[in-house]
Amino acid sequence: MTGVEIGAACIVALVVLIMIGMPIGIGMIVVSFAGVTLIRNDVVAIRMIGSVANDSLEEYLFAVVPLFVLMGLLVTISGVGKDTFDLFERLLRRVRAGLGVATVFANAVFASITGISIASASVFSRVAVPEMTRHGYSRRFSTGVVAGSSVLGMLIPPSLLMIIYAVLAEESVGRMFLAGVGPGLLLSLLFTVTILILATWRRSSVFAGEVDELAVEPQSVFDSAKKGIPIVVLVTLVLGGLYGGFFNPTEAGAVGALGALVIALLRRSLNSSRLWDLLVETGQVTVSVLFLIMAATFFSRMLAMSGLPNALAQTLLAGSIGPYGFLLLFLVLVIVMGFLIDSISIMLILLPIALPVATEAGFDLIWFGVLTVVAVEIGLLTPPFGLSVYTIKAALDDPDLKISDIFLGAMPFVFAMMVGLAIIVIFPPIATWLARL
């Protein structure tokens, strides 16, 4: 067998192993070891494992993963999400379907201090859904808005998926963060327009009955500031410090985690037992992510050794399909894989194959990364996997709420994301202008 044939066989073997239930990281290591052994020999394969473990995880940059994860968990338990929703609820109370729009903007702000979509889905399912249903919104629409807007957590910086992409593509994490700002604002706008269209022309899909006017109790300037200041401080510390050049991504994560810890302590939402639980959860998430990165690095090196990515680049780009045909094929494949497996796994499987082709096609890898993240996030809303949807179902713990209703409620936002994806393809500066300053 040639190297290209071995590489192709390893990809097929990985898909089979995943389908029969083997964890993706372990599957990658197994097929990569087998591939290198067949291309070279077992001695080279054993040495490469050690080299990959050292080279892929020794970077100072990887400290950003546990720091941003810890910050997100601390922010979640400190009630900042509820305060964010309360502020936007007051600001948008006179807008048509204002609670839905408030949920989108609150999620956008919350995303800028967490970086994890599932955290947003979990928090706002408990905060926004009961409030919306109480005021006459349908349960399907309420849960759909929360599910749809939760995807902003992986696009608006800081974002765990952006960090993973930056590592795999050898791009700057800071530039990837900057690249997510424009597309994140674009999706927030598209989600808002979607809500307004539904509320105007398909009222039955938004409202379950008569809509109660929001009775907003008078609130002092001090009370409003008490809710808004922690949000502003965290956003300023993390994003202001990062974009202002005061911190690198790792330092911004450390400052953000410290700020979130201080807020949680001041609000008395943290005790020693809960802090220990958060640290353990942070460690579990970090280890799983870094293990997957190590496995993906091994897989990428095996593919490079086989020559498969270069052969694919020559075949696809020299044929009738062309660069944008390849891009369309890649995005469709990402979205389809999102029906079945989680976001991080999709990126770790496909990017080692797709990045060399994208480079050969002359694509801006930062723009390509943003497109990848948006396409991957669509999978959070689509059946049968739809992780955000299942998170909302678990958080609400309502036996009368059907999974199918949440999926149907999220479908308009899937279409909005498709439109957003097309706009970013047509107008790349939306993703690149800020990152290239």
TrEMBL record:
It is a multi-pass membrane protein. InterPro entries: DctM, TRAP_DctM. This is TRAP transporter large permease protein. One of its GO terms (cellular component) is plasma membrane. Part of the tripartite ATP-independent periplasmic (TRAP) transport system. GO terms for molecular function: transmembrane transporter activity. Keywords: Cell inner membrane, Cell membrane, Membrane, Transmembrane, Transmembrane helix, Transport. The chain crosses the membrane at residues 6-39, 60-81, 101-124, 145-168, 174-199, 228-246, 252-270, 282-304, 324-353, 365-386, 406-435. The complex comprises the extracytoplasmic solute receptor protein and the two transmembrane proteins. Pfam families: DctM. The keyword Cell membrane applies. It is found in: Cell inner membrane. Its main location: membrane. Signal peptide: none annotated. Belongs to the TRAP transporter large permease family. Residues 11-429 form the TRAP C4-dicarboxylate transport system permease DctM subunit domain.
